[in-house]
Design a protein that fits this description.
With 409 residues, the chain is of the alpha/beta class. 37% of the residues lie in helices and 23% in strands. The strands form five sheets. The chain has a seven-stranded mixed beta sheet. Strands 15, 16, 17, 20, 21 and 22 form a six-stranded parallel beta sheet that branches. The protein binds flavin mononucleotide. Flavin mononucleotide binds next to helix 8, strand 18 and strand 20. In the N-terminal section; belongs to the zinc metallo-hydrolase group 3 family.
Length: 409
């Protein structure tokens, strides 16, 4: 990739990865970028970096060379976040520049030793501290704990108004050599919005409270540019990604959008017949449905859609005295990721004892999910016409609940 100019004395360097599961579990068919930034005053700082997989640090080092930067020209390595997708390159960097000086939080200092055996000189910073690079570039630091690890901070260049928030305001999606919102078409911006919404639900969602605090801190700063650790740089309209993140964070408590996600699994088609009726009924009310069959849909996509939907339909039969197992896997993930406070309805078929509903209640309790369910419907064997009519009726009731909730805000 090419090094690109962000703003006065500031450059973006990046590496894309495409053929991995992010965090070892999230598919990224459209890839993800890891962004690093160089700010040059009289002194030179590099802010954030890349992972250490598959020779990726070399991609970064090649970009130093493009800029005519020698390793020894770097005065400060600013580490906003210690997760190895941003800090992994330090292992390689240490081999070529052993004495580099680090600027980071006290918590990150401990992690540096634990992850990479790095105990270089560290300038430990906390909220309100600054570092003067010269030529007016004063970096101000703000701790934003738990966005997304406890040690995380954001860096702000007071001269250019550029915020380097690392994981906050990030997105999935590989980037090109034109990674700025002012260079992208509306279609490309929409692409990154979809990527950001899945990134948020998969990675940041459980930390929505800390994210809201970080957004509040951001809004006190005269931010002109947002330069995150993943995804595009927001140079012409940083407010767009701030507003998107505000919405995503608010979805944690709900309401989210006036949309309904239908998650279903069925072995022999009995439950599925109800799915067809409820999807039809909801769509007839003019509400967007996101339909996911389990285990075919990955929980990454299900999580994205549940995160942005105010309503959820769960349809699954009983299987060995519990619920259809792939549904339990998905619900467990939704609980772990704190997809809380939804309007919901569940139905499904059973053969003799039932048991799916009991396990659903257990999962809801375990994760304190606080989903507000309409009366569930269980039917023996194949659904009768009355069952299907009732399922459609519940679909319309769910639409009414969702609409009322969204209207009240
Ligand atoms: C492997 C297996 C295990 C099942 N275990 C139970 C059970 O423990 N209790 C029960 O009431 N029904 C059980 N059933 C019956 C199903 O719930 C029933 O066949 C239902 O109609 C399946 O719905 P579907 O057609 O949507 O897959 C089981 C079915 C299968 C195939």
């Amino acid at each position: 990739m090419k090094t690109t100019h962000v703003t006065e004395n500031t450059w973006r360097l990046s590496a894309n990865v495409t053929d991995i599961l992010f965090e070892g579990m999230w598919p990224i068919p459209e890839g993800v970028s890891m962004n690093s930034y160089i700010v040059k005053g009289e002194k030179v700082a590099i802010i954030d970096g890349v992972c250490n997989w598959d020779g990726t640090p070399q991609v970064l080092f090649d970009q130093f060379a493009q800029m005519g930067i020698d390793y020894n020209d770097i005065d400060y390595v600013v580490i906003n976040h210690m997760e190895p997708d941003h800090s992994g390159w330090l292992e390689d960097f240490k081999k070529i520049r052993p004495d580099f000086k680090i600027v980071t939080t006290a918590k990150a200092q401990a992690l540096l030793k634990a992850f990479f055996e790095i105990d270089n000189e560290v300038m430990v910073v906390k909220s309100g501290d600054t570092l003067d690079l010269g030529n007016g570039h004063v970096l101000a630091f703000e701790e934003i704990p738990n966005v997304h690890w406890p040690e995380t901070m954001a860096t702000f260049d007071t001269k250019t108004g550029t915020l380097f928030p690392c994981d906050a305001f990030g997105s999935f999606g590989a980037i090109t050599d034109s990674p700025y919102d002012d260079q992208l078409s509306q279609e490309e911006i929409d692409f990154f919005e979809r990527q950001a919404s899945r990134y948020y639900a998969n990675i940041v969602g459980p930390f929505s409270g800390p994210t809201q605090k970080a957004i509040a801190k951001t809004e006190k700063l005269p931010v002109k540019i947002i330069a995150p650790g993943h995804g595009i740089v927001w140079r012409s309209n940083p407010q767009k990604i701030i507003d998107d993140y505000k919405r995503y964070a608010s979805y944690s408590k709900g309401p989210a959008k006036e949309e309904i996600t239908v998650i279903w699994g069925s072995m022999y088609g009995n439950t599925e017949r109800g799915v067809r009726r409820i999807v039809e009924a909801i769509e007839a009310e003019g509400v967007t449905v996101h339909e996911h069959q389990v285990p075919q849909s990955h929980y990454s996509e299900i999580l994205r859609d549940v995160w942005s939907s105010s309503g959820v339909v769960l349809a699954m039969p009983t299987y060995e005295y519990k619920m259809f197992a792939p549904m339990a896997v998905v619900l467990d993930e939704l609980g772990r990721k704190k997809a809380l406070n939804r309007k919901a309805f569940r139905f499904g078929s059973y053969g003799w004892s039932g048991g799916a509903q009991k396990e659903l209640d257990e999962i809801m309790t375990r994760y304190k999910m606080n989903w507000d369910f309409l009366e569930p419907l269980e039917f023996l064997g194949a659904p009768k016409e009355d069952d299907l009519d009732l399922i459609a009726t519940r679909g319309r009731e769910l639409v009414a609940c969702v609409r009322e909730w969204v209207r009240q805000g």
